[in-house]
Design a protein that fits this description.
Elements lengths: L4 H8 L5 E5 H7 L6 H5 L14 H8 L2 E7 L4 E6 L9 H9 L5 H11 L3 H29 L15 E5 L14 E5 H8 L3 E3 L5 E3 L29 H16 L4
Antiparallel strand pairs: 1-3, 2-3, 4-5, 6-7
Helix pairs in contact: 1-4
Length: 257
């Protein structure tokens, strides 16, 4: 049984639509303690399952729950059921969850639509996202091609047919086609970046997952990006890079489990 299956089972068996669990309580549920990243890196508690690499987020969402708030200082996390919310959900507890330090606006906005099971609304939202993606992506790539001199930021490859516009904060989490939320990456590196197997820290140095230790990608570990926009205002946002890098760390630490 995978480590987080027990958390999935626990949440699935709960009644009601809201629960606050302390980290200590979660450690009692799991067969082994939470990793260090759960205590230090806020992205651990995001609902992203980008590339299906965040097995912990998969577990609570398979059970029909999403994280709506957390506090690393007080060491607790708030879960809300999104498949069958009922009218008797304690409003006061919902408000308190919204005031928790860890709540992200994107999570607060996403939860109600999913909670009430409005398939038509979700379908319309998906269509709007698809439209925004189609409209934004070509221009986004063209701007990145110009900013990065048509070269992959990590490898330096100049084969334009292989170069893709990578979002640092995924499009699924935020519609942001600003050049500062993107990097020009070779297609294979783009895939590994989206899977959080390759990341870039706030000093523009490449970090590589331990799972790629004996591959050709290990050569990039610790290197500074070889291509960056000359215009400082077009360079990757350090806040966005930190967010991606924290998820990279959380995923890499999961390899120890």
């Amino acid at each position: 049984m995978a480590k987080y299956d027990s958390l999935e089972t626990h949440l699935r068996d709960l009644s009601g639509n809201f629960v606050r669990l302390t980290f200590a309580e979660i450690n009692e549920i799991l067969p082994s303690p939470l990793p260090r990243s759960a205590y230090e890196h806020p992205p651990f508690w995001s609902n992203t399952t980008e590339g299906r690499t965040h097995v912990w987020a998969d577990a609570w969402q398979r059970a029909g729950w999403r994280v709506t708030g957390y506090s690393l200082e007080q060491r607790h996390v708030d879960f809300r059921r999104f498949q069958a919310a009922s009218a008797d959900t304690p409003q006061g507890r919902e408000d308190n969850a919204g005031e928790t330090r860890g709540v992200e606006p994107s999570l607060r906005e996403a939860a109600p639509a999913a909670s009430y099971g409005d398939g038509r609304q979700e379908s319309e939202e998906r269509q709007l996202v698809a439209i925004k993606t189609r409209r934004g992506q070509p221009d986004f790539r063209e701007r990145l091609l110009r900013a990065y001199g048509a070269a992959c930021a990590v490898s330096g490859s100049s084969v334009e047919a292989l170069l893709e516009a990578a979002h640092i904060v995924p499009h699924a989490l935020a519609t942001n086609y600003a050049t500062t939320n993107g990097m020009l990456l070779r297609s294979d590196i783009h895939t590994l970046f989206d899977l959080h197997l390759i990341s870039v820290d706030s000093d523009y140095r490449v970090t590589i997952s331990r799972s790629l230790e004996w591959t050709e990608y290990a050569q990039y570990r610790g290197r500074r990006l070889v291509a960056l926009p000359i215009d400082l205002q077009e360079r990757p946002s350090t806040d966005s890079l930190k967010r991606h890098h924290n998820l990279f760390i959380a995923r890499d630490e999961a390899l120890d489990e």
